[in-house]
Structure formats: structure tokens, C-alpha cells
Amino acid sequence: MAGMHREFKPDKIIHEPVRLQIMTYLAAGTKRTCSFSELQEKLGLSSGNLSVQLRRLEEAGYISVTKKFKNRRPLTSVSLTPGGMEALQEYIAGLENIVRRFKDDFPRDGPEPGR
Question: Which one of 19, 45, 87, 95 has the lowest number of neighbouring Cβ atoms within 10 Å?
Fold first, then answer.
């Protein structure tokens, strides 16, 4: 287990569950952009919690937040930056490497994980 920590150091910004959900949701979209209200609804977050998490991601350069008005109403959109996409891909690749490395440690005829 100690070797795993030396090889894969998860990005602490992405590793936090809510931020990981935000980045994954944005990465899954074809435009990698959505509104604040869509994120809030889809992820089931309070506006305060979402705002705090978005600020952390924005400070890291992983997302950009754009505020404008549409029909005199504020509209906030959130976009995954190229650097954010790259960081997420590196994070996922690190997790996949851990799974591959330990996959042979599990019995082939045993129960499936989670059962």
C-alpha cells in the first residue's frame, strides 16, 4: 500500500467528492459548459456549497465561471477549461493504474467486488 502512495498522488482539488462530481459532470457534456442552476439541480447541491466548490475549482484553473444577464436576469455559466480536462484525465488514469496493478491480487473464481 505504501508504494501506491508514492506512485499516485491524487489531486486534492479534484479528489474532494463534490468537486469530482462537478468536473465529471462538465467533462461528460459535449460542450463542457452548463449553467449554475443546472449543476445545482443535477448534483443536488445548495447554492452556497456549489459556490464554494466552484470557487476552489476556478482558483485552480480547472473551470471558468462567466456571469452575464439574459432578459435582465443573471445567468452564471460554468465551463471546464482545457487544463481542468487534462487534470481530470490524469486523475482518472491514476485510479485506473491502481485498479490494473491490484487486479491480479483478487481471485478469479471469487465473488464480484461489492458482493
Answer: 95
